[in-house]
Amino acid sequence: MTNKASSAAILQGIQQVVGTSSREKPICLHEPDFQGTQAWTYVKSCLDTGWVSSAGSWVSRFEQELASFTGASHAIAVTNGTVALRLALHLVGVKPNDEVLLPSMSFVATANAVSHLGAIPHFVDIEPSNLGLDPTALSSRLEAVAKQHQGQLINGESGRRIAAVLPVHVFGHPAEVAKIHSVADKWGLPLVEDAAEALGSWRNDTHCGLFGAVGTLSFNGNKLITTGGGGALLTNDPELAQRARHLSTTAKQPHPWAFDHDAVGWNDRMPNLNAALGVAQVEDLNRRLEAKRLLAERYATVFADLEGVELMPQPLGCRSNHWLISLRLTNVDPIEAKAQRLQLLEAAHAAGILLRPIWIPLHHLPMYKTSPAGSLVFTNDQAYKLVNLPSSPQLLKQC
After folding, report:
1. 278 and 380: one domain?
2. How far apart are CA 2 and CA 167, in angstroms?
3. How far is 295 from 183, CA to CA, in rounded Å?
4. Residues 48 and 24 in one domain
5. Could you tell me if 255 and 295 lie in one domain?
6. H helices of the chain, where?
7. What stretches of 212-269 show up as alpha helix (H) in DSSP?
8. Which end of the chain is more exposed for a tag (fewer CB within 10 A), N or C?
9. Is the dihedral angle over the CA atoms 324, 378, 174, 306 positive or is it negative?
10. Residues 183, 106: one domain?
11. 339, burial (CB in 10 Å: exposed 0-12, middle 13-18, buried 19+)
12. First-to-final CA distance of the chain
């Protein structure tokens, strides 16, 4: 039987880093933090002036701050990450009954954004080293099922058009997106990056979300910075950026009073209130990233000598934002690993340490069980071995 760390030993290690907890005073997974920012001042300015909806100046300022930080030529702020992803896929031409290649190891919003356009998720396996889409598995899957027919790339098994590739940067760890992009280019497929969790994550000198046609971010309440709800598109393509702004503003033609719309659009733009909250935190972003790095290092030190577990490392050549710091059980038996993780989660929550497992793989969810898929050996292997640790940057203060 494989050696495994006890739940007590793992919890002791966590408490060495983040301190003691109880059910009455739990340590949460990832909490928002506005202390030391201008959040109240900026939001109050929206209330004082009455500019609370999507036409205010804070929206433009937030977009400019995001573009400057990431190196993107354009950032377009919208109401949430799922909306951003749906719009991005629409912009690259995904249509009803198309297929989009993506990993099954992701939050459900990745597949839902595909489904919202009437398209079908097509699942490809991951790399255990970074939990992202495996470029080799992607290439093998396309070689197995794809064929050219009348100028379109068709899945020979389903008869549907393959329309895009959608990698995910899981927990802020950059996927091998340059290699994925090479595969996508070979097959003439646009690349859309789900960088919802990866603000502040870089592969070499390129920020996540800027390898393909367009990438998306999320500013949900548990992200590195939050606008309550919120998301954004990142792109270096000026035409795509213009279309994103236009379609996310109900496709309304600019005019002082006329309501003239030239396409079917969405009312997706981020409100001014939310953007003001975002600007206050972008100003604090570098400090947060450094705190997250130090927190991850402290976890790594504590768990370095504990047999049966390993901390998910930062991929080589990358700077991860360490959004959710993850512990992996090294038990090779999936049934034993699943039981061990359940025991750990129960013990942790009883002690007020709100650990979280990784998501159920998308191909196991009832609405996606019949979706096309290649071999998902590594996805299934990793599904019951990963646990997210308390990762709020402000936890560093009590370490």
Report:
1. no
2. 33
3. 35
4. no
5. no
6. 7-18, 39-49, 57-70, 81-91, 108-116, 135-145, 177-186, 238-247, 272-282, 285-303, 334-350, 377-382
7. 238-247
8. N
9. positive
10. yes
11. middle
12. 35
Which residue reads 């990431």 in tokens? 70
Could you give the C-alpha distances from 205 to 208, 236, 377, in angstroms and in order? 10, 15, 31
Tokens at 106, concatenated: 């992701």
Q: How is 148-185 classified by DSSP, letter by letter?
A: EETTEEEETTT-PBEEEE--B-GGGPPPSHHHHHHHHH
Amino acid at 8: A
Q: Do residues 19 and 352 lie in contact, with contact meaning Cβ atoms separated by under 8 Å?
A: no
Tell me if 1 is assigned to some domain: no
CA distance 71 to 62: 14
> For residue 167, how many C-alpha atoms fall within 13 Å in the half-sphere facing its CB?
36
Amino acid, single-letter form, for residue 279: V
Pair 25, 97 in one domain: no
Per-residue pLDDT tens digits of the chain, which is 399 residues long: 456 789 999 999 999 999 988 889 999 999 999 999 999 999 999 999 999 998 889 999 999 999 999 999 999 999 999 999 999 999 999 999 999 999 999 999 999 999 999 999 999 999 999 999 999 999 999 999 999 999 999 999 999 999 999 999 999 999 999 999 999 999 999 999 999 999 999 999 999 999 999 999 999 999 999 999 999 999 999 999 999 999 999 999 999 999 999 999 999 999 999 999 999 999 999 999 999 999 999 999 999 999 999 999 999 999 999 999 999 999 888 889 999 999 999 999 999 999 999 999 999 999 999 999 999 999 999 999 999 999 999 998 765
Per the structure, the complete domain to which residue 62 belongs is given by: 39-282
The reported pTM is: 0.96
Count of domains forming the chain: 2
